[in-house]
Amino acid sequence: MGTSLNTYIEIFNTGFEVDAETVQLKKIVIPIIQRDYAQGRMDAEVNRIRARFLDSLHRAIMDDPITLDFVYGDINADGVMTPLDGQQRLTALFLLHWYAAKKEEIDATEHLCLGNFSYETRYSARDFCSFLIKFNPSFTKKLSEEIVDQAWFPLDWKKDPTISSMLVMLDAIQDEFAETQGIWTKLKDKAITFYFLPIKDMGLTDELYIKMNSRGKPLTQFEHFKAELERELRKIDEPMAKHIIKKIDLDWTDMLWRYRGDDNVIDDEFLRYFRFICDIICYQNGGTTQGKSNDEFDLLKEYFSGQNENAMANIQMLEDYFDCWCFLQDDNTPDEFLERFISHERQAGKIKVEKRYGVNIFKDCVRNYADISGNGNRLFPLNRIVLLYAVISYLLNKDTISNDEFSRRLRIVNNLIQNSEDELSDSELRTSGNRMPAILKQVDAIIKTGTIDDTIEKNLNSTQLTEEALKISWVENNPDKAEALFELEDHDLLQGQISIVGLEHSDYFSRFQSLFSCKEDLVDCALMSIGNYGQREKNGRRYQLGSKKNIKAWRNLFHKSSNDGFERTKDILVQLLSRADSFTDELLSGIINTYTNDCETNNNYEWRYYYIKYDLFRPGSFGKYDWGDFEKRPYEFSVMLTESKISENTYQPFLKAVYNNRLSKDHYGQRAIDGSNFIVCENSAYVVMSTDTTMEVKRIAIAQDNNGIDAEDRIKKLLLIRNR
């Protein structure tokens, strides 16, 4: 048996030695047992494969000759070759040669090879090939339309899957090669070749075909990808190509095997991690992935082909990024390694990540990278990309970084990630712009040196960068307090940013933990009994307070932002923390009762009194008030039940305390309906107005001191009036 390199044209009338006999190949016949021609199917995967195949053939015709994979076939004594493997490629070559011959009006004596190809899968497919060879299209419209319009084309042929696939492929060939000249000459000059291995009559029974074609499906996307990768790498460096493909087949497959899906292959997992690596290359080169193709073949061509001047460096990076998970020193698997440094719970030496994310960030990457959720969000978002990059940065430099150093540095990175939601962007359309290149540079600096590089512009959150730089120095000077700091950082309300307590109050670190082990509603009221700890948002109307149910309200208060009042919040919190070494619900209740009793004793009912005294002032939703003019009209505000906008469920709490469900939703809860009238609450009075005329009917004044503070409980007063 001899393997030979052939073109479609020259393979016919060529002699092949089979079992010491020379057999001249005269005809190629696709047997009945073979499956239908599939390259023209109309589904997303086949469309993609067809487009790539034709692109490679077009490039071969233009200036980059290609050798296709092996074709195996049995040649009988009459010179008829029955393909065992290669039907799809042979059919595509037949159609391409037909197109070239007809489009370039090649003399019939030169394209006799077309008549030597036939199908026997169905009589219709056989007859179609026969008629097609004789047909001379005008090329004035789509080939499929012109062919179907012919008298020799029965309409029921459209139902034949092989014929319909051939028509699709012919249209695709026409689209790809419409402007290409000299196709036939290039085909004759071996622009496209393939290896042919003749197999003497082996008794090609149905059972043998079924066995040899047991896959019964086209090559997988991954198989096509690997073949394309190998071809591109061989053009650059043959030994290196063999080296990389061997690693894919052995080391990298073994490493990924534990993360395989239900299909028991690692194809998708490999390709997802490949996309991750490509995106990192893009960011490192100062680019953005926004608006770019996420197709692995496009990425392969862009970063790992000869057209990229940095291809060798990229290939080395590809190898390093896979190898770093294969050769871990102290751990057998990526799982074991990551579990030493990442946790869902507070543990010494580990960073804490939200439970919605997996501890095994590498597994999450190979399972979810580049996938999109139902609401259009990335399943592996930018914050995870940055964290995984930090881990890999360590793995590539672990010979110079101790485990303890890595643990500390990873914590710094995690703190920055958690507090850089607005800065984590790779979009040029966002205000923050594409910060990913600078962010990765900063992460590299932190992991490799343990310091913040303040020369890198516009990367992670500047406030948090400043805090982390201060903490690095502080830990060096206070190593005995480091773990207390880390425990504070891991608190669910802080997530790495501790400025609300401050390094200057290190003795209060544990007190914060104790305080927020109590009921949030009591903490809320205890803080308010000391002073107005709330913060005005930048829109000037919304006011942020705490919440007994929503953790986000506290996070908004305890993290520096564009809100006005952070330092006031901090001062009040520190005052409360100064009152005890540890806190209980009973202690907080005592602080609250002391305040409300003093208010009642002194007839001094500022708005904080009502906030503490009446539960409905603290609904527990988002901790948001709508407050037009706090300074001049402190009693004119509304409780919001949404995060950012007033709604029909918004309410004026002084009215709701008395009239409950009789507030008008049409007026955002600012009116209480009372018979034919309605009541509104002003800063120093209740006003009764006619529903029909909106004219004032009565004014109920609230006694106030010279500072405009209520001298009587306005809720009790309205209750008395209503109940009369």
Description:
A hairpin with a 3-residue loop joins strand 16 and strand 17 (685-690). Helix 8 (221-236) runs antiparallel to helix 9 (238-256). The strands form five sheets. A six-stranded mixed beta sheet has the order 1-8-5-6-4-7. It is built from 27 helices and 18 strands. The longest helix is centred in the first third of the chain and has 19 residues, at 44-62. The protein has four domains: 4-218, no CATH class; 223-462, no CATH class; 499-641, no CATH class; 651-724, no CATH class. With 724 residues, it is of the alpha+beta class.
Q: Characterize the largest beta sheet: strand count, sense, and whether it forms a barrel.
A: 6 strands, mixed
- Strand fraction equals 5-15%
Could you give the distance between the termini? Answer: 111 Å
Radius of gyration: 37 Å
SS field, number of helical segments: 27
Low-confidence stretches: 201-218
Number of spatially distinct domains: 4
Q: Helical content, roughly?
A: 40-55%
- From the spread of the alpha carbons, the general shape counts as elongated
Number of strands: 18
- Briefly note the structural class of the backbone: alpha+beta
Strand order of the largest sheet: 1-8-5-6-4-7
Q: For the residues shown, what is the average pLDDT?
A: 91
